[in-house]
Design goal:
heterodimer, A: about 500 residues, alpha+beta, five-stranded antiparallel beta sheet, B: about 220 residues, alpha/beta, five-stranded parallel beta sheet, four-stranded antiparallel beta sheet
């Protein structure tokens, strides 16, 4: 269905190319022919005029020598000249000042020309003849004698019509060849395009890494291929990340499941006392809970990243969320011997999904309290800032591009920045850029010292939620000195 | 309470029926939406526990059918779909409460109590459990006439435990009650508060009232 559509479109594109090409050739050919015809006929006419003018010169000289004294000799000259040029319908006529014919050669056409009224020369077309007429004054004042020389336009017209016939035949040939040329041109233009279409059509989600071939000429089609290749690269990376995520998720789910299974099998191996059974069931319950918790986190991640089903958002007070979170962890921190200090603005409104925003603040505080040893300090601050500077984010994958849509209504109302700072164990330098990766846990051995490890999803969830809300998240850490996480969100107008 | 369980999954249906019966409820279990609708329309149940994804009739249709027939029986929906829209759709169809699978059985019992009570009584201004008395109007707590000084969080925690006295209350329920958050991080934020509350409520008395139920949560019990 789709390939049919593509080939149909390509066909119509080719058809258009052919049509345009044919039209272009026809227009250029026709214009050239017309221009040529005009130029040739003008040149022929100019030639004829020159000849006629030269004849007139000669006749004038002859006339000055012989007329009217030796009129008969002059007329004889004229008659011979006319016979010599008979083929061209050449004639000569003498006219007096009233327009009456004095003399004309034998083949001259019936009289019809301009009435001579002034001295000088006149050239023009008259009844299919090219006529040159010059008048000069006689000895008697007010009397004019006019010599009119004409030559038939017939030979020239015949030459032009021969030219027209040839031009017509050539035009016909060009018109019939131009679609073929257009077809060939169109084909050679379209071939790379159809190649590209076919290649793109063959792409499969699991074979995205095979790029479209470049022809190496660097033209627009190569640029298109390069653009598509870059898109493919991003998609391939995205798909790979997803696949890794899926297999990691399956692996992570397997761990509590394995514990469940082995506990049950070992228990069923032999008879046990009621107390033992109860002990086992409690352990199973705990494993169930960690499974549930993992699944809930996976779903939360999917929910916050889903571009098709954005979570519902409302305007809410971020500071209230932060204060609640602080209250929630206060006692736990105190018991652990960690001082929890807060510096929270009175009110900062954000457009957010309440459970998701709570999750972010809670996750960050949880990490801070968990990784800070007794005697340490955890600082929670939430303040308005001017710009979300330093939004360089090590995890700017495709997910970011899909999700990073700053809230439109937030412009002009600034940003809020929440930082959670601890004096905990910190993260080793090389691990810092990886902390937002799913299931990444920095240095498991250290985690075991500091109590139960998490799912490795906490910061991924924070990042997904923050990005979905058009914000940024940044983590700075030094091994042995502590970690600071800064979350910036666009504020909403009240 | 007279309960109707509409659940097509045999494992969950069986354990629900067993648990509810053992908790003292009169429980009927059907496995299809049509049967559920027919039974609910003809017999006076207190609460219907309704699975949302049934093979024949969608759970939402069952609720709508019930409500259309004029039944005001309380309905608690059980479903694997936990998105906000799904909850809203369920509540809009006429359900009274909504629980996402997997859920803690203790929480189901608590919700049953709440739904049943919503239909019957108004909340009183004071709660008494054995020697313990909690007055909501002046926020005073006494045990055997001795005043107990509690922080607002501890007061809220105790109130919740007393409201569900004798029942197991999960950490998740307490978290939702106290901070409106479904929090299951690594740091056990509830345990710390429970320990503090316990040190104030039970210290100096022979009988410990606040008990930890391993693997499930906490319970306030007397006798």
């Amino acid at each position: 269905m789709r390939s049919g559509l593509v080939s149909r479109l390509a066909g119509s594109f080719r058809l258009r190319l052919i049509m345009w090409n044919a039209l272009g050739v026809a227009v250029v050919g026709l214009a050239t022919t017309i221009a040529l015809r005009f130029l040739v006929s003008a040149a022929l006419l100019a030639d004829l005029d020159a000849v006629l003018k030269q004849d007139a010169q000669e006749i004038l000289l002859d006339m000055q020598a012989k007329y009217p004294e030796q009129a008969q000799a002059f007329f004889g000259d004229m008659e011979r000249k006319a016979q010599a040029h008979e083929l061209f319908g050449w004639y000569v006529r003498l006219i007096d000042h009233r327009g009456r014919q004095i003399w004309a050669n034998s083949n001259s056409p019936p009289q019809s020309a301009w009435t001579p009224n002034e001295v000088g020369m006149r050239i023009g077309d008259k009844n299919g003849y090219r006529v040159v007429q010059f008048s000069f004054p006689q000895a008697d004042p007010g009397q004019l004698t006019t010599v009119r020389i004409g030559s038939s336009l017939g030979p020239m017209e015949r030459a032009m019509s021969r030219f027209d016939r040839v031009a017509f035949l050539i035009s016909l040939a060009v018109l019939s060849v131009s679609p073929a040329i257009g077809y060939w041109l169109g084909n050679s233009m379209i071939r790379p395009l159809t190649d590209l279409t076919r290649r793109a059509d063959e792409l499969q989600p699991h074979r995205l890494a095979t790029p479209l071939p470049l022809r190496g000429v660097g033209d627009e089609l190569d640029q298109l291929s390069q653009t598509i290749n870059r898109l493919l690269e991003r998609l391939a990376r995205y798909v790979n990340e997803r696949q890794d995520y899926l297999s990691n998720a399956a692996h992570e789910l397997r761990t509590p499941l394995a514990a469940l299974r082995s506990t049950i099998e070992v228990t069923l191996d032999r008879d046990r006392s009621a107390a033992e059974y109860q002990e086992v069931l409690v352990r199973l319950m705990e494993e169930c809970e960690s499974l549930e918790s993992l699944i809930r986190q996976l779903l939360l991640l999917a929910e916050s990243e889903s571009p098709r089903h954005p979570v519902a958002r409302a305007t809410l007070d971020w500071c209230a969320v932060a204060r609640t979170a602080a209250a929630m962890f206060e006692a736990a921190a105190e018991v652990k011997g960690v001082r929890l200090e807060t510096d929270i603005a009175p009110q900062l409104l954000v457009k957010a999904n309440a459970p998701h925003l709570r999750q972010v603040v809670n996750n960050l505080l949880d990490n801070a309290v968990k990784y800070t040893p007794a005697g340490g300090r955890v600082g929670l601050s939430l303040r308005p800032i001017a710009t979300p500077a330093g939004s360089s984010d090590p995890q700017s994958g495709i997910g970011r591009e899909v999700q990073d849509k700053p809230a439109q209504d937030s412009h002009g109302s600034g940003w809020g920045e929440l930082t959670v700072q601890d004096t905990g164990i910190g993260i080793d330098g090389p691990d810092v850029p990886r902390v937002f990766e799913r299931f990444f846990r920095a240095d498991r051995a250290r985690q075991k010292e500091s109590g139960p490890g998490g799912s490795g999803l906490g910061l991924s969830i924070c990042q997904a939620i923050v990005l979905a809300h058009g914000g940024t998240i940044e983590l700075r850490s030094r091994l042995g000195e502590g970690t600071t996480v800064a979350v910036r969100l666009p504020l909403s107008v009240s | 309470m007279m309960l109707l369980v509409v659940e097509d999954d045999p494992g969950l249906g069986k354990s629900l029926t067993q648990g509810l019966t053992e908790a003292g409820h009169d429980c009927t279990w059907v496995r299809s939406g049509a049967d559920g609708l027919r039974l609910a329309a003809t017999r006076p149940f207190d609460v219907v526990l309704l699975d949302l994804m049934l093979p024949d009739l969608a759970g939402l249709e069952v609720v709508r059918g019930l409500r259309a027939a004029g039944s005001r029986t309380a309905v608690i929906m059980l479903t694997a779909l936990g998105a906000v829209e799904d909850r809203v759709a369920g509540l809009e169809a006429g359900a009274d409460d909504y629980m996402v699978k997997p859920f803690a059985f203790a929480e189901l019992l608590a919700r049953l109590t709440a739904v049943g009570r919503r239909a019957l009584t108004r909340p009183s201004s004071a709660v008494t459990v054995g020697p313990l008395r909690l007055d909501l109007t002046n926020r005073r707590v006494t045990r055997e006439e001795r005043d107990i000084d509690l922080t607002p969080t501890e007061f809220s925690l105790l109130e919740f435990l007393m409201r569900y006295a004798g029942q197991v209350v999960t950490r998740k329920m307490l978290c939702e009650h106290l901070w409106d958050a479904d929090w299951e991080g690594v740091t056990n934020v509830i345990e710390v508060h429970i320990n503090r509350l316990r040190s104030k409520v039970d210290k100096g008395f022979a009988e410990p009232l606040i008990q930890t139920v391993r693997g499930r949560g906490y319970a306030l019990r007397t006798g």
